[in-house]
Amino acid sequence: MNERVPVLKTYKLFIGGEFPRSESGRSYTLKDNRGRALANICQGSRKDFRNAVVAAREAQSGWAGRSGYNRGQILYRLGELVEGRRDQFVAELKQQGSSIVEARKEVDRTIDRIIYFAGWADKYQQLFSTVNPAASPHFVFSVPEPTGVVALIAPEQSGLLGLVSLLCPIILGGNTVVALVSESKPLSAITFSEVLAAGDVPHGVVNILTGFRSELLEHIAGHMDVNAIVYAGGKPEESKLIQQQASLNVKRVIFPKTDSWPSESAESPYFIMDTQEVKTTWHPIGL
Amino acid sequence: MSTTTASLPLDWTYAPAPEKADPNISERYDLFINGEFVPSSDAQYRRIIIPSRETFLCEVAEAGKPDIDRAVRAARSAYSKIWSKMPPRERGKYIFRIARLLQERAREMAVAESLNGGKPIRESRDTDIPLSVAHFFYYAGWADKLIYAFPGARARALGVCGQVIPWNFPLLMAAWKIAPALATGNTVVLKPAETTPVTALKLAEIIRDADLPPGVVNIVPGGRSTGQLLVEHPDVDKIAFTGSTAVGKWIMKALAGTRKKYTLELGGKAANIIFEDAAIDQAVEGIINAIFFNQGHVCCAGSRLLVQEGIADTVISKLKKRMETLILGDPLDKNTDVGAINSKEQLDKIERYLQVGQEEGAEMWQPTCPVPEKGFWCRPTLFTNVSQSHRITQEEIFGPVLSIQTFRTAEEAIEKANNTPYGLSGGVWTDKGAKIFKVTRQVKAGVMWANTFNKFDPSSPFGGYKESGMGREGGWHGLMPYVELESL
Fold it and tell me: Residue range A180-195: average pLDDT?
């Protein structure tokens, strides 16, 4: 009986670069398919969400001020770090019910997707910018700029790949994000937040909450300092609630066009534009 | 200039120069549905008045539920049977035709616009009508070039677009809405504003004369309830709205739970930032144009002036001097700078704000210009001693009213500029290029004018951040809201 007792992992929220428990002190127990307790997961509260928005807002202008080149490098490094933790991600996906083949595939795709999007960080601006041939003597150009703070309601079924596929186009464009991750498959998202903390993504750029969508959604969609909400929950009644609440401050509401996360349909520079604004600047030409 | 000439008793009164062209306005207009003018189902007509005279202009049919149903049916049928099957090049040629016919009737259109809306003929003649033409011309050319517009994707039309437009630029807003929708292969049901349907209905005549297939464009005048019917119609695929933020929010709510796409171009409270190193006289002219263009009935109007402390007194006194020379009066007079307020309702709203501004402690100043007895008029107005929390600083007035605040550093100016739920436009005046880029990058607004203001072009995207709306109109970016992108 000298077998070593493993140290169990505590899963927590990720807000402003720190790992707090829910301020509410609440948690729920995640179980595997056989009904055995896997972990206690923080049941994030509305207050946790508000705190995360404060952190995201604080980080936004600094992040947007980084060069696209720099944001691309930071994302690339994130890919490297996930690669290094491959086994852990695979193990957690297995715990959450994936087969070993599925789990390996999901982690591989996740890494590749991060690398794919990392490469866009200093290119989408050229693709979506214009110099406008105005008829008057003015130099007029239009460039994309980040929308600001984005709330992401991550897909329920694709706890890692779905989350990362939606997260990357948001942050590479200079937005900061508060993500509410899969309720039933939260483990890989939380481990992903540890990767974020270990990498070079500035504190507050990505904030990860676990908790109950049914409880938080109305509040998230109605928050007055959130500029956009990406919803991948796929439930019509929730979509409706989000749009109603979003009207309070004219939030941009984005329903991702794909739910086939492994496929290439989840990769497109047009997804970056979902959380970009276009700014047009005019200046006279003359002396 | 020597003091002797400056003290001469100059008489600045101009002789009247009225534009006399016949605007060709009918006594009565019906709805334009499926290529023809038809009476509304309940034969209701709204009296349209000339705001500068408070006299009758014409009467216009008011679309009710059966009419909206009919218009949407016509648009749907035109979409599926004709427009979506037409080769893009032919589609484009129809839009070119509209541009040309509009150009040919530009002069009467300008008179009609000024009569119905109250804006100076100089503006309708030099801005509204030529820009409307240019917009059709610009998007006509896109129709057969969409395969080059979106690399790696195929652009598909959305279907039937319901479009609701405001009263401040009646024809121009119709052009902004219709041209990109048609170029991308959609069909249209457009509702002009309650008080200003005339040029849209004249455009309907042009569309008819252009032989556009029936139902591709339908124009259904009416008030708010008509707009509501269109927004809520189940067979409309997309809503494009320009108007107030309050109505925009209502539209978002009304569309919740539907699959309809929408774009919104809403209110604004633009900051016009003038630095000490600006070319002051040029800037003063720009400030005047920013807020008094179209009586300030402009969502992107520079209604907040942020002036750097050291030049505040100079700028304000120069502004007052310039405002004294503004000619307010008959919109059809070619010398007029400031026309009539569009409606009694809008005048009441502006006057309430003038009241509120004074009650909150700001100092109001107006030039001494005479005001015609009949019609709706508001003298160009500025407020000093204004704080950030004043309602006249925070809320959109949509009239010729300028709030003036001061600042010391660029950071302070940027912070004040961004301290509003709106984000449509902004201005910066300085001789320093680096400062221009610092400020224009940090002000959260969709259009930034540097050393100029209120410039528009069909090739140039327009639209807001934050509560000023979403989506862009104009340019390549203006195609995006009217298509669905499918990956190749």
Answer: 97
